[in-house]
Structure formats: structure tokens, C-alpha cells
Amino acid sequence: MLHKLKRNLILLNAILTGLILCIVVFGACIINIKQIKQNDLNNYMSLKETIEYKLQTENMIEDSWIADLEASDRLIIHIEDNGTPFLYQGSIRFASRRNNIVEEVKRTALTEGISNRTDVSVPHKMHSLVYSLKDDANTPFYASVSLIPVSNGYLSLTLVQFYPNERKQIIRQIFIFIGIDIIGILALTLVSSFFVSRTLKPVAENQKKQNEFIASASHDLRSPLAVIQTSASALLVDGSDPRCFVPIINNECTRMSRLIHDMLLLASSDTKSWQMQKEYIDTDTYLIELYDTFSTLCRKQDHSLSMHFMQDTLPKLYADKDRLTQVLGILIDNALCYSPAKSEIILRPYQKKASLILEVEDHGIGITKEQREQIFRRFYRADQSRNDISHFGLGLSIAKELVELHNGKISVKDTPGGGSTFVIELPAVS
Ligand code: ADP
Question: Rounded to the nearest 5°, which phi and psi values hold at 337?
Fold first, then answer.
């Protein structure tokens, strides 16, 4: 399912980013094409101004100057003096082509009232618009007609400039932009696939953990159910004594309800629906009360509980009293369970910098280095063969969640001489 979700997310990402990129690249392409056209037009206008200025200011225009300009800038410069064309026939090879183009431009200008007939008077400079036309060979060109007053009448200039490469340039630009677009889409797809994988990694890990959780929970629920089922079947056998089976069934029901309680507790922690009722706690008083509660329990189980105060006064805590008692209850319960009878369990509170440390020390079987990495995982039991009524491997994971809800940390170390010491570090109130 996650695989499909990942594929769909990458696809959606690629389509959306690709679409945005296409729009941006298309816009940039249009702007670039306009720029190419504008550059051609600007170039034409500046040539036109140069030639007009020369015509207006110089008496003699040399043919060689016109020929050079025409050849270097792909121009037709057609000049008429009071309606009579210059003798120069230009550098374009076929005079007919040149004449046709000039005539077409003059005709177009006439529609605007720009005429170079001999009888017109030209009181000031007159310009036609700049036309964008095409010749017989479909080559585009800019053209215009200007009438320039001079001392003995007027000169008319028909200026044509071809730009055969503009189309090629535009096509090249389009291909470049399509290339950029494709490379961009591929790169974005790669990047999005990387980020989608990274984003989904915790989801995949969570799903794996959940599957493990369900598998372990089902396994732990199956054994009491099997015992209940066997006892119920035995009860159906004629002559069996119900009194033998009722305590067994009762025991297994207690075991199941405890497991379900723990599982519900962890589930509510996962959904962040644990209600914390934090208050300012006088640590010394709280620990003495806690000692009173748990020392009786320890005595009943043939252990002794001692409290070792390292300082005269302890800093206050801002915590949920019941939850804190629950954490210490889990640690003391484990200490009782994993230590031999008559051994001592020590509660050791002390202040370290801005933290209050609570140590629960036992002299039991101890925890190996490898196990230390695992014990806070749900359903982890170092000794899987133990099928204790109340030990499902959930206690320490609940304790860890609760300590973290108090912005604290929990860890474990060896007790000198054997056993384990659980260390809770909580922020102290200054
Ligand atoms: P359980 O309910 O099985 O005790 P916990 O989550 O409380 O589950 O503990 C996980 C495992 O860590 C236990 O099964 C046990 O192997 C180990 N453990 C916990 N506390 C102690 C301890 N005080 N001494 C030795 N081993 C311990």
C-alpha cells in the first residue's frame, strides 16, 4: 500500500511541478522570442536613422558606401531624388527581385499617403510605418519609406532589411527551452522521489512497528485464551470439579485484562491523548509518601526497600504525581521481579545541575549491554520463556513514554556488584 502511495505521490509531484515548469519555460520562451524580434527591429531603426541623417546632411552619397552597407546588413537602400531613382542598382543579384520588393513597399506606403511623386511637396520629414513583409522566397523583411526635405526638393528613401536567420534563431530557442523543460522535469522527479521516500520512511517504520505490536499482542492474548478454552472444555467432562478450574480461568482473565489495559495505555499515548495533570510537587514529601506505599509491597514480596537521600533538600518538581508514581511503580515492580528474595531495592533521589535524578537500584539478574538497547521496545522480554502473569514487555515502554511527557529521560546502568539501576532525569523547578 505504501509503495503505491509513494508511486502516486511521485507522479503527482512530477505532474504538478512539471506543469508549473512548463508554464514558466513557455513564458520565458515567449519573452525571448519577442526580444529577438525587438532586437531586429531596433537594429533596423538605428540603420534607418543613420542613413536618413547621412542623406539629410551630405550632398554626395557614394555608391560604394551604399553597396557596403547593403552587403553587410542585408539591406536594399533605394533612394530617389525628387522622384528620380539613383543610378546605383544595388548589390542584390537579381534586379527584378530588388525592383519588385521596392515597388511593393512603395505601394504599401502609398496606402498611408506617403508618395514619392515628382509633384509632391515635402515641408518636413515624413515616415511610413515600419512594415513586416515577406518576399517571394518567403524571407521576412522590415521595410519603410521616408521622405526627407533637402535644399533642392526632397529625397525619398525606401529601406528594406532582410532577417532570414530570425526564424532559425526562434526555432533554436524553442528547442533549447524544450530541452531545459525536459531536464528540469526529470531533475524535479528525482528530487521529489528522494523527498517522498524520506517523508514516507517514518510512516513505513511506524507501520512495521504497528505490525510487530499487533503480532506480539495477538501472541500474548492467545495463551490465556488457550488456557481458558482448555479449562472450559475440561469443565464439560462429566465428574470434573469446577473448583479446580475457576481459579485458573480467573487468573488468565486478570492477565488478559492487564495486557489489554497496558495496550490501551500505549495506544492512547500514540494518539497523544494522554491527559497530564501537572502540579508543583514538594519532592521530599512526595518521595516519603511513595516510600510508605511501596515498602509494604516490597516487604510482602520478601524484599526490602530503602531510600537514600544524598542531599538535605531536593528541588521541587512540576509533574503529574500519579503518572510519576506509575513510572516508579513499574521500575520497583521490575526490581522485585528480577531480583532474588531478600535483596535490597534502593530509591536514590538527588539533584544534578538543573535536573532531579531518581535512581531505582536493584541487586538482581542485571541487564546485558545488548539488552539495554532493546528493553524500552514494546513487548521486549529478555527471557521470552517467562510467562509471568503481569510481565508482557510493555512496562518499560510505558515508563519511557511517561518520562518523556515530563520532558525527562530514562536510562539504565549496572549496579556495582551486580544488578541494574534505572535512572530517571526530570527537569527541576528552580
Ligand atoms: P516486563 O513487563 O516484561 O517486565 P518491561 O518492559 O518492564 O517488561 O521490561 C522489559 C524487559 O527488560 C524485561 O522482560 C526484562 O527482561 C528486562 N528488565 C526490566 N527491568 C529489569 C530489571 N530490574 N532487572 C533485570 N531485567 C530487567
Answer: -70, -40
